[in-house]
Known about the structure:
With 363 residues, the protein is an alpha/beta fold. 36% of the residues lie in helices and 17% in strands.
Amino acid sequence: MEKITIRDIANQAGVSVATVSRAINPHTSRFVRTSTRSKILRLVKRTNYLPSPVAKRLATGKSTNIVIFLSTRYTSIFYSDYYTKLLSGAMSVLENTNYNLIVRMLKHTEYQFTLNKVVRGMDIAATIICDFLDMLQVSLSGLENVRMPVVILNRTERKEGVTFMAVDNFKGGYDATNHLVQLGHRKIGIVKGTYYEKDMIDRFEGYKKALADNFIPINDAYVFEGDFTEKTGFKAVEYLMALKDRPTAIFCTNDEIAIGAFMQLDSMGVRCPKDVSLMGFDGLDTGRYLVPKLTSMTLPITEIAQEAVRALLCALEGKREMGELRIFEATLFKGGTCGRPPSRAASGAGTGTMPHKRTSGGS
Length: 363
């Protein structure tokens, strides 16, 4: 069966294509004579005609698509809590609107892109660019030619016509470290992600400031650098636990690292938090399935996505101008992997041995 087109409806009704377009559009149907409109609508119902999105856009002059650009160079969209919460948060705001959420996956070779070139020819009303883990190099040159509301996530910049939203990673790193200090720790290791990634840099700077404010000197031997994966957690624990004067707490700058660290501690018979406290950062749901649950700084990913979509909708309705910078805060989730530091005798420092019985009960 051939697909029915708007021209077929026009021919059967004996009217122009423009008249059909006006008749089926709720915003313009009043401009079509009642008898003609009724005839057209009967034909539409009988033939099961569905107007294409592009045709509707041409008729109304407006798109109903909000496109979110994602890159998955480091992690999969299907296995990442970050992307799950991001997309579900965005959809929760669009649920009762006429707008659709379109996900545009960028190829690995597209991490450098100019927005006005990427969106050229696409049916877009507004866009969200998610620069997760500094994966994208977005050029905003020629933005005046885009003529749509734009929100960029995880970037702390200011530019007229673009709204930026990000988490205060410096404060998050400070609060995570300070929590460990308040529990009594002075030997606090840190496992960093890739050295050039700004989120990780800010978390590391927060760590250093918290130590300085508590008059704790930075021990370079306690700093381990890797990437964003569980494997880095494995390697970091092997290195830190082999130190003669090993740390009593480890701050991992993302949860995937922390989960890898947790598993490696467990395989070595190191009890968490009785022997070593472990702090994560992200608040991934995966950490809640550990026993004990992972203590972590939780990112308000869902809230950020919701606010991003609300900002776009307000701009599309002419209620708000784009161009602000909004900063969100990470909050501490007290699981069970952080507790008071062990005594030197109990910690087995320098002996290379650890008891194998694991206990829970921490923060």
